[in-house]
Amino acid sequence: MTALTLSTAGAATLRADALVVGVAKGAKGPVVAPGAEAVDKAFDGKLASVLETLGAVGGEGEITKLPAPSGLKAPVVIAVGLGSAPEQDQAYDAEALRRAAGTAARALAGSKKAGFALPIEAVEDAEAIAEGALLGAYAFTAYQDKGKDAKKPLAEVALLGTKPRDKAFKAAAERALALTEEINRARDLINMPPNDLTPEAFAAVATAAGKEHGIKVQVLDEKALAKGGFGGILGVGQGSQNPPRLVRLSYTHAKDAKTLALVGKGITYDSGGISLKPAGHNETMKCDMSGAAAVFAAVVAAARLGLSVNVTGWLALAENMPSGSATRPGDVLRMYSGKTVEVLNTDAEGRLVLADALTKASEENPDAIVDVATLTGAMVLALGSRTFAVMANDDAFRTSIHEIADEVGEASWPMPLPADLRKGMDSPTADIANMGERMGGGLVAGLFLKEFVGEGITWAHLDIAGPAFHEGAPYGYTPKGGTGSAVRTLVKLAERTAGGELG
Ligand code: BES
Ligand code: MN
Ligand code: ZN
Fold it and tell me: pTM above 0.85?
């Protein structure tokens, strides 16, 4: 794990492998961003022109490595692009700082310590830089030969230009460290191969983390699920040799605090079941537990930060496999709520496990419920692979979540739940079918979930099928594979709920 320090040393005197400075796109060529004054001075004030000569323009994702001049204790200077320079008197956008720090941290894999001399106007900027650097310094190497010269992530991030003894800066550093460690933990779970991360194994990880962080963890195994009548979770899991689990995590602050319930889709592998996915559609389906990973990470982060809110996490864990014991298209399941569902397509399994978890979570009458799920390919078609959808039974709540996501640098977009799509799920045999019209498939799934939320409870649904798993080349602080999508939004939502700013 990468360490984070607030450095008392200046850029000139810091002993490190490299110094990171920012370069932005100016009207007349690259400009060196604030924070790098001491470094620029060591270049006789010519750092911008040196960078321009080397072809740097300051664009996002750009990295220029320079040997350090005498006058600096670090041997290398890394200039990272920040994109367009802000207007006069305007600060750099937090997400631009987060991404630049992440790009620099990735370029520094294999190094021990780097000083980050990026622009810091306010505590929030320091926090964004710390988050970006710690998220960028992530690598999933658990299954690779340690003897090979695979580069280890950057070991220490030293933030320059902060006030190490200032309470606000210290708190920001602690928050960034706890948050990014939990996001990286979620990424590890998502990247873990599905032969190892079974529902039982995921539940064991949650139990262990609960002990470590004072979170109460209860696990319902297949026997308890059968006794309780969780027909949705059991119906999805019954085709697999690895039985399902429902995990409840609860971080409690105080009885009179607000309670937020988070529900995560935890399909440890989605083969599609009897409605089997074709080759080309199943290679990344170990990521289908990303919602549960995000919920788990958010509950642990809330506990580590000691937020003044009660947060309950529900992980609906199952493996969706075809076999002689699997649910067939045409089967009818009796859900935990008592409703019957005709399963027309066993590949629409996420809504089945979530439905049971939503009903169960509703019994405790929380102030709000948010579910997170890699639910539909339709939503990836609609919004692309970097933006998650937000649906809700309350317009103001949907807007709040969209705005919170924007604030923490997560791309999201509000989506409707049009009532006319409900009739497509009418079943001649059961109360509802698990599939409806193909058009608007992401909204159809949302409408299905809505039926399992308790009367009068504020609820939102995040479909993270696009951003949960990144298949392209790494960029900014986003690695290949599991991204930890939605964790930052959930934690900020918990903080806002604690602050009494919601509901
Ligand atoms: N896990 C998939 C959705 C998914 C697709 C996640 C792409 C990540 C990337 C989900 O269980 C699924 O298979 N959904 C079906 C629903 C359909 C059968 C109604 C889909 O989207 O095709
Ligand atoms: Mn599926
Ligand atoms: Zn799925």
Answer: yes
